[in-house]
UniProtKB/TrEMBL annotation, chain A:
Record GO cellular component, one term: NADH dehydrogenase complex
Compartments where located: Cell membrane; Membrane
Residue spans crossing the bilayer: 6-24, 31-50, 62-83
Name of the molecule in the record: NADH-quinone oxidoreductase subunit K
Organism from which the protein derives: Chryseolinea serpens
UniProtKB/TrEMBL annotation, chain B:
Residue spans crossing the bilayer: 37-55, 91-111, 118-135, 141-159, 171-193, 239-261, 273-293, 299-320, 332-352, 358-380, 401-432, 444-462, 491-508
Main location: membrane
Record keyword NAD present: yes
Source species: Chryseolinea serpens
InterPro entries: NADH4_N, NADH_Q_OxRdtase_chainM/4, NADH_UbQ_OxRdtase, ND/Mrp_TM
Keywords for this protein: Membrane, NAD, Translocase, Transmembrane, Transmembrane helix
The name this protein goes by in its record: NADH-quinone oxidoreductase subunit M
Family assignment from sequence similarity: Belongs to the complex I subunit 4 family.
Residue ranges occupied by any NADH:ubiquinone oxidoreductase chain 4 N-terminal domain in the UniProt entry: 73-126
Transit peptide in keyword set: no
Subcellular location: Endomembrane system; Membrane
GO biological process, one term: electron transport coupled proton transport
GO molecular function term, any single one: NADH dehydrogenase activity
Record membrane topology: Multi-pass membrane protein
Automatic annotation (TrEMBL), chain C:
InterPro entries: NADHpl_OxRdtase_5_subgr, ND/Mrp_TM, NU5C-like, Proton_antipo_N
Keyword Acyltransferase found: no
Protein name per UniProt: NADH-quinone oxidoreductase subunit L
Limits of the NADH:quinone oxidoreductase/Mrp antiporter transmembrane domain: 140-420
Topology of the protein relative to the lipid bilayer: Multi-pass membrane protein
Residue ranges of every copy of the NADH-Ubiquinone oxidoreductase (complex I) chain 5 N-terminal domain listed in the record: 74-124
Primary subcellular site in the record, as a coarse category: membrane
Lineage: Bacteria, Pseudomonadati, Bacteroidota, Cytophagia, Cytophagales
UniProtKB/TrEMBL annotation, chain D:
Name of this protein: NADH-quinone oxidoreductase subunit N
Location, primary (coarse class): membrane
One CC-aspect GO term: plasma membrane
NADH:quinone oxidoreductase/Mrp antiporter transmembrane domain: residues covered: 133-415
Reactions mediated catalytically: a quinone + NADH + 5 H(+)(in) = a quinol + NAD(+) + 4 H(+)(out)
Subunit architecture: NDH-1 is composed of 14 different subunits. Subunits NuoA, H, J, K, L, M, N constitute the membrane sector of the complex.
Species this protein is from: Chryseolinea serpens
Amino acid sequence: MNVPVHHFLYLGAFLFSVGLVVVISKRNTILVLLGLELMLNASNLNLVAFNRLHPGNLQGQMFAIFVIVVAVCEAAVGLAIVLRIYREYQTSVPDDVNELNL
Amino acid sequence: MQQYLLSLLLFTPLLAALLSLFLPATSTATFRIITVVVNVLQVMFLLVLLLNYQAGAGLQFVELKPWITLNMGNWGILKASYFVGVDGLSLPLVALAVFILFIATIASWKITQNVKGYFILLLILNAAIIGSFTALDFLLFYLFFEFMLLPMFFLIALWGGPKREYASIKFFLYTLLGSILILIVMIALYVSVHDPSTSGQLVHSFNLLHMADASNFISTSVLDPHRALQLGPFSARTWAFLLLFFGFAIKLPMVPVHTWLPDAHVEAPTPISVILAALLLKIGGYGLARIAFPIFPDAAFHLGWFVGLMGVISIIYGGLNAMASKDLKRLIAYSSVSHMGFVLLGLASFTAEGTAGAVYQMFSHGLISAMLFVLAGVLADRTNDRTISHYSGLAGKMPTYTAFILVAFFASLGLPGFSGFIAEIMVFLGAFKSAGLGGPLHESLAIVATLGLVIGAAYYLWTLQRMFFGPLNVKGDFSVDQLSDLNRREYFILLPLALAILFFGIFPQPLMSVIDPYAQHFAAFVLETGKNLTLTP
Amino acid sequence: MDAIHTYSFLFHFCLVAALAFPLLSFVLSFYISEKYSWITSVLASFLLLLGTLASAVVLYQAWNHPPFAYRLEWFSLAGYSFSAGVYINNISALMLFIVTGVSFLVHLYSVGYMAGDAGIQRYFAMLGFFTFAMQGIVVSGNLLMTFVFWELVGFSSYMLIGHWHEIPAAAEASKRAFIINRVGDAGFLVGLMIVWAHGHSFDIAALQHMPVDPTWMTLASLGIFCGIVGKSAQFPLFTWLPDAMVGPTPVSALIHAATMVAAGVFLLARVHFLFTVPALHIVAVVGCITALLGAVSALAQHDIKKILAYSTLSQLGLMVVALGAGSPQAALLHLFTHAFFKACLFLAAGAVIHSLHQAQHQSHVHFDVQDIRNLGGLEKKLPFTFLIFVISGSALAGLPLTSGFLSKDAILTALVQWHGEGFSWKLLILAAVALVSFLTVVYTFRMIWKIFKGSETATAQLHISEPPAVMRAPMAVLAGVSLWIWFSWNPFNFYGWMYTNIGEAKPFHSGMVSIASAIWVILALGVAYVTRQVTVGSPLLLNAFYFDRLLKQFVEKPILQLAALTHHADKKWIDGFLHATAYAQLIVAHLTGWFDRAIVDGLVDGVAGAAKGLGSFTRSFQGGKIQLYIFWATFAIIIFIIWTLL
Amino acid sequence: MEHLAEQLSSIKASFILLGPELVLSTGIVVLVILGLIKKIQKTTLTAMSALTFVVAIAVSLALSRSMAQESAALFGGMLRRDSFSSYLGLLIDISGLLTVAMTWRRQQLQRALSEYYALLITITLGAHLLVMSVNLLMVFLSLEMVSLSSYVLAGFAFSRKGTEGSMKYFLFGSVSSAAMLYGFSLLYGLTGTLDFSLGEFTRPLIDHPSPLFFIAAFLGLAGFLYKMAAAPLHPWAPDVYEAAPMPVIAFFAVVPKLAGLGVLTRFTLALYAYGQSSFDWQFVLSLVAMLSLTVGNFSALWQKNAKRLMGYSSIAQSGFLLVGVAAFVPQGIHYMLFYASAYVVMNFLVFLYLQYFESLGCTTLESFAGSGKILVWPAVFLLVGFVALTGLPPTGGFTGKLFIFSSLWDAYQLSGKGVLLWLMVFGLLNTVVSLFYYLRIPFYAFVRSGEINAKPNYLTFENLLGLILVLGVLYLFFNPGLLMGWINKINFVL
């Protein structure tokens, strides 16, 4: 099975776009965090897939591992913030949290 | 001491301001005394300066000290210096500044609110004005130029009239806009100019004298007169000139960028109005003569007609507006617009007469407008009302005041015997002659400008008729009893002004002999260089 | 100037003294305490007397000697010298004497006339200054200095006409006089600019050799003529002169005789050489119009002083015609004679007014004492004044045996000579001048008749007495010099000592003209007698063809409207709203108004508005909703990428 | 493949050059541990963190003195310590120190102080690493280090609004860094290396330019722009600024900005490849700068809240800093560093006094009314700060702007690109607009009359520190030579 590299790229781009749309449009903060994960994983996919183009170079895979770690941290911080938000605002809809404006 | 005279003039007020800073705010009299002492010292320095000044010897009392020297490697060295000096252009204005600032201090005697702050700001303003008139380094000039803004802003905004906030912000924004235009050109200029005295290394100099020499432009620079880059309709040099021109024209002020002036004047306290009209406006004209014209003579030559035309428009538009003004201070403010138009017309003539007239006009208008604003202030002090239509027949009630008003009005409308006449007639002669010498102005401009004389007579005499003649009658929230004649302090503020105006109207030679060499040199330089640079492809 | 004449010290001294005394009078007036203000009047008259004596010495020493020229550098610029020059020849010496003399007489007269006036110090100060300024014009050998004094004359006339500043009409008239003069002066200034640009000198002597392009020369001379039109109240800038009658009567005498309106004619004579032929033609036409206009308007006036004012207009017109016709001598001769008899007439009229005022004051009857319709039969009550009036009136009318006959004759002769042979438009001018001299007789006769003859009406109940001696004396002196004898031995030949010495004498005198003129005048006298009861009721003439209203309507009002408009526009900047202006009737007004609203207003309002608008635009992305932020940022990046890649 | 021993020795050598960062790391650990002690004095924590910064500054100074000016690659090319990064690191440390000083004045109000300081130092450490990074992986990691800590710190007001700011910051930041990461991944694919300082990175880009590359690079840039709060990735800034505690804002306005600027400079210079790049990065940066200036200045005109106003001001200041980079001439970077230094001083001057006034209840602009008459010195110093931010003489802000715009003019003369001229004119005219809002607080303070509950007290810590900062701002105008001489020694190599 020899899938060309650009297929991975398309998939990555698709994942990234979906993630972005989710981030922008979902009304639940948890889902927004999921969208973020999608976006990060789109990059991961790219990084790993590019190994095809640059064989013998493990930097991409390394990077992906780091990204996964960072994504975990990010999720942790994000969830903590969401919890705080819920405590203060009794909602997890980002749009409803808009006391800071203008 | 002689070689430090200008520095003494400049730093005495700053040191006094610093000293005042550490004195308790409660001892109000101290601040007045300190300021007066500074003024007296400045007068003494000025006298020494005048006695040792040699007319026709170019720049004198020059102090040149390195200030900023930055070695930027391949790019070259950036050099700004503490470079001051006086010549036939700046000496009259420095003298005027010292005199008017003294008058302003005396006129400030009645300030009671926050005396400390007021006098500190006044002292800073003092230094900035003197500095602007003496600086020969663009960066230094710009420093002083900007330095005037904040004290002036607060002086109007804190001690001004009812609409002071609006007026002060308008003043500030306008002037800042002008100074930004100047800043743009300053940046472009110093990058483009090198110091010819240093061989080998490229030295980017802020020295105005270097900038005025066309051969000092780095040949790759956009502003190099021999390689004028075309940017849209004009060459880069013309653009630069236009920016400078409008930058200074705002200060001058020229129609249509004049509207900050009436507001600022109407709202400012009397001494500040005096300084504003007598000195700050002159910096516009001074900047044109010192910076815009000599550095870009080709563009100035090319656009001379435009400068002259704007001058004529200012003369007439300002006059018409003065005629329709209902407030005495506003009327005087508009008359300033009209009179400063003569400065533009004179400078744009590229003749010795026109230039001398322009400088003389700056000096003379400094005296006359100071007197006018003091007079307007006298009335405002009495009744807090400057509406022209609220008064009638003051001549009978306030005879001395009316006498001074007569002097000031007739001096301002250019009656012979007063200094304004000499200035205006020189401007007219120069402006008319310009075309014959290959200068940029058409004869018709001078002819149209004579309308300004008629309009000037019309609004002043009409005001006289309305306010001072006819039967005594007042309207508004005050009574006739409040209209006391001049008190002694006011009298002694006005008398020296009136005498000075008269003196320079009857004996122009002392002042003219100072201006003359400068005017000749200036006119010949801009005309010749302007023509030559224009001819070179 | 082949023979260099050295002037004595006495001459120098007297020349300085002649000018210094009036100035001294001006200065000293400020130092006399208000309590003793009457001293001013005496002191001033005394100083003027000294001045007159000094100028007499000057006249004596300079008469028929080579001109005295002295140049003092006022200031120098660019290698050119702006000098204050003195130039004394026969004309200026004579004029100096006449100015100082008449002024002295007026001063003297004023001692009586103005006694008790509150502003007497100011009055005499300005009178002195007025004289000084006029003397300056007379002796100046330099156009710039002339212009300086010219303006100063305007200033002092402003102060004097508006002497009674509490009266609104006086304030109005003085303002008007100054502004109208300024209009002329603006033209004068243009003339000066042309002269300077081409000759680089203002020295009158030097200008005679100035090579100038004829077009510029014509323009320059017309420019200077503008100044003259203003000062000598020629058409169309004459309206200030009748208005100026609100000033004190001695001032009117001075203005009309020696110090103000004379300046124009004098200057015209002095710089006559600058005038090119086309320019002279215009001068002649303007003079002619003025003369006619003055004469016809005088017919319809009821106010004594107005009649005299219009008569001055018409006489000045005659002088200007003579100058236009190339005969400065004739004009000057008439100027000199006119100075005496017109001063005399005004003083006499002043005497009438003064006496009637005094009488009114005692009896508390009020009517307009200057209106001749209220007067009549004063012959018996004021015999001395009547006599003076008759003598000086005859001179004005140009009856034989008076100075006026001589000078008018000179003008007519000059015109006859000028128009030459054949038929040309110049003949029309000659005819007009003849008509003017005819009308002059008519209105003068009518005026005197109405005041002194007939029966008393309003004044019948009044106890009227002659004015004091201090007023009578100057009148007597002036009446005396209104006779022919001072100007030419032969009462029918103007070609006397004065005429021959005030210019290049042209040996042209036609006895025919004198005879014709004498007959013409007698005829006019007859007509005047016959029609003495006819009143010319034309309001058109009464108001001098509504000229000032015309000026008001078409010059003043638009300017004020324009001013209001520009101001309005400026204001709107500040207030930030526009509303339609009621003043926008004129196209110009519309245009400037549009310009101001669109361009000038637009600046601050526009910039501020745009800034705020832009601010609210850029801010509008900041709604507080985080997902929207992200959306906008994404959107912006996409736009950015697309824009850059394309 | 190197030998392990060699690698180890190179890592050892790297550690020596990583002195300041090690100091900071130690500080973090110590502070966290100290936080565990129940009865610890708050002052002790403050002193400890101040000490950390002081030592870090001292170590960096010592290091930059001892180090030959050559740049040194650390950890096999992950980081690079050169004079550029050292200088920025120093600025960042000084900012940290000033933040600690500001915090000291309100430490009693601050909950979880040890964590607060620890996070502060973590951000500093991340910023240090960020400016040293030449590897995309390292860039990502250090950027996340800064970001994650910032998200938390932004909520340290422990208020409703603080939490909201924190959330917005987090969401916006995460998306930006995800986008950046995506861009990085594409760049890796296109070039085959993560080290953007290498020729390998730029060569394929010069040889085979593709739009994909541009998109990738621009997405990468977006991450830096977000960190700098430059348009169009600025919207988080005002919200976060309004909600966070004052010292934190002061810190945010400088440290992440400078760190982002540092890495952006390196990154864009690599992309620009001495003008060989087929994409006009100069144009892009000019556009970004103009957009930032416009958005920042014009939006600020409307603000009524001092903190929010400063948020927009910080956006506009990013625009000014970017101008220096956009010139793409060597002295442009130098001048940018000068302006950045001046910016640190004037920024802290302003925030110091904003905090002071906030403690007196002045949060909205109107509430400043009348304060200038009672609290003369604080108001005057605040005025100086605002004047400096506006860029008027005689302040370092003016000199900085003068320098930056002269390098821009130079760049314009070299390239003749119209966009640079526009940027210059536009940027300077923006000064006028900025004046409008910068002067509003002094305007209320001095001109409007109002009541304020305070007693004039000259001898406060704020006034002492303020005086030092004011003198600094003025000194930078009157004698820029000293600092400029130091900056000039910075030899900028990729």
